[in-house]
Write a structure and sequence with these properties.
Helix content is about 70%, strand content about 0%. The chain is built from 11 helices and no strands.
């Protein structure tokens, strides 16, 4: 449960006030944290980060973290850099190098403080590769990377992947120029 403890400490740092241990926000956060930790191998994985971050979004305005809490976290990292073990000191140093970037999500509305969107995009490919044992040839690897890139791009813009692939195969056999993704999406 080390991850739960770390998330709990992060939650307390980001809250504009310290909730009572039996308080509503604390219980709500604890419940959602446990749900998200338990759903790592479930299909609800993509929902967990939003559920986890919603109590934080409700409890503080976006500009709040630029103040005292931010300075306190920075002070803690400075202290960890100077007075801790080598491993922890290295982690604190790495976080301090990109400290301002870590707070970008507080300034930009709609930005999540995680990279879950990118991870979710790659998840299907990773599962496919695990089930099918990947490819054996360089040609197969190139095909997989290209077809998944095209499919994800079309899917993200609301296009029909199957129709686009059918048109590409038809053009290949008719020796015509393949369709462009921008044409398929109407750009």
């Amino acid at each position: 449960m080390g991850a739960a403890r770390a998330m709990h400490l992060l939650f307390l740092q980001l809250l504009p006030y310290r909730p009572l241990k039996g308080g509503f926000i604390y219980r709500k956060f604890k419940k959602r944290l446990i749900f998200s930790l338990n759903s790592v191998n479930r299909k609800e994985e993509s929902v967990a980060p939003k559920l986890l971050m919603s109590p934080l979004r409700q409890c503080y305005p976006p500009s709040y973290c630029r103040g005292a809490r931010k300075r306190r976290v920075e002070y803690g990292l400075d202290d960890g850099l100077a007075n801790s073990s080598d491993a922890f000191s290295k982690i604190c140093g790495t976080l301090l190098e990109d400290f301002e970037k870590l707070w970008t999500f507080t300034k930009t509305l709609g930005m999540e403080p995680t990279n879950n969107l990118a991870e979710r995009d790659l998840r299907k490919l990773v599962i496919w590769r695990k089930k099918s044992y990947g490819t054996r040839s360089e040609r197969g690897k190139k095909f997989v990377e290209r077809i998944t890139t095209v499919a994800q791009t079309i899917r993200k813009h609301g296009g029909n992947v199957l129709h686009f692939v059918q048109q590409a195969v038809k053009c290949f056999y008719l020796r015509k120029a393949p369709p462009l993704i921008s044409e398929a999406l109407g750009f």
